Amino acid sequence: MSFKTIATAGNKGKRVRSDCHASVELTDSGGLQIDLQSKVKFMFGNDITELIKKVCSFFEIGNAKIIMQDSGALPFVMAARLEAAIKKVMKTEKEFLFDIIEENKFETGRDQNRFSRLYLPGNTPSLMLNAGLHKPNGLILDLEDAVAHDKKHEARFIVRNALRNLNFYSAEKMVRINQIPVGLEDLDYIIQHGVNLILVPKCESADQIKEVNDRIDQIQSKLKEPRNVWLMPIIESALGVIKAFEIASAAQNIVALAVGLEDYTADLGVRRTAEGSESFFARSMVVNACKATGIQAIDSVYSDVGNMEGLKQNVIASKSLGFDGMGCIHPRQIKVIHENFAPDSFEIEKSKKIVNAFIVATENGLGVVSLGTKMIDAPIVKRAQKVIDMAINLELLDINWREEFLAEKK
After folding, report:
1. Mean pLDDT throughout 331-343?
2. Which residue of 48, 125, 224, 260 has the fewest C-beta atoms within 10 A of its own C-beta?
3. Are the CB atoms for 78 and 68 separated by under 8 Å?
């Protein structure tokens, strides 16, 4: 990065909201000259000015012309924009950070439900602010395709600050980094700031996963309290599909594989269709790789945000192939995805019968479990128990269902 005496970061314009645009020009004298342009200047002008002074003092800037054009940005957004501009005009390793909020100090489990994950552009804070209220299983702050090339530098600061100060409302904190090797630089802005899961796009080899984990280990080694950081590689090419099992088994912290069908079909040179016949092989390969390694299989996004019936049928088809969840690009898709990936009443009742039959067989010392005329082996019982656990977690089944069964049997 070449350094200048004047630099900008952020967004401005009539349609911009919950954001700001910062301009920084270093000068030889004159102290801090702050030009604040904001519709809320009357109410919050002093607070915004003090924040600007605090950031400049932190970076030991005594002489500069600062223009802040505010469109209702939160403090963590303003600080991120100003820091991004400052780091274009001067070289420093220091980071201006607010304390991480208590709501964001949680970690997530390997096998938790990941029915939905909502993509949010990493350089558009207005779309992040209330996204957690829609209750997706995960919120993805996207540094890759959703961010223009010339905005990637400043997006990193927004994503970093959002991980610390945006309320995710218990949604898993996810970040999609850029394609390796550029994505390795993104890790410096997210690992130590509370990210739960990293999506690794356009993954084509186990070596790429090793590069990511090596960099994570380097960063974690400097922390007092290292955290679990899960990985979800995204398969988006013909080569990635062929190497799906290799990638799925590349590291212990891989909890899922996702498939990205827009890039995959582009790689094949074919058009993506609603029927999905052109991607059946790829999706099946990803699902089989996941089941063989005991991780979750996550399907691609459904891009027609206005077609809820089409989305429903897509989810049903996805679930029938063995997928455990899918991405979404609009909050309205979340409810449909959750309802149709969750166990239905038929699955729950069948699973109850299987587990109950297993209980009876175990009590009677039988080595063989049967339900009606069908024999039931261990994998089937395990799958049934997983359905029941999920149903209980989603409050579709009372936690005391087994006690009720045992009482009835007596």
Report:
1. 93
2. 224
3. yes
